[in-house]
Amino acid sequence: MSQPVKLSDKLVLDARLTAETAERSIAGQIEFWAKLGRAMEPLLQGVQAMALSRAGGVKPISECLESTNSPEGHKRVAEHLKALPYPHYEAADTPGLLIRTTADGKRSTGRFVNRRFEVVKRTRR
Known about the structure:
Blueprint: H1 9-22, H2 26-40, H3 46-55, H4 61-66, H5 71-83, E1 88-91, E2 98-101, E3 107-113, E4 116-119
Antiparallel strand pairs: 1-2, 2-3, 3-4
Helix pairs in contact: 1-2
């Protein structure tokens, strides 16, 4: 027997975004989260449950997505990419090309061909 319930708009939006990725319905996603929480609760000690509850207050997916195409979002992405292991890649001035930076600071321009980075010799004009 189904029962109507009131849910916050934020929760429904997060469920919608997550459900698309997980290939579930919005209701299916919320039910999945509820089942997961119900299964985990008896396994947690009080301190762990409180920590997870606080972590639930982290920015929802919908808020994170709203800021992606903003100066703050671009800065966050750049900082995250810099923290990743080398090599790093960035867009080149020429469409279709990338600049690869290795751990020793060497930069080369190229493109991926069959999942391998191939250096392209650029002609100077």
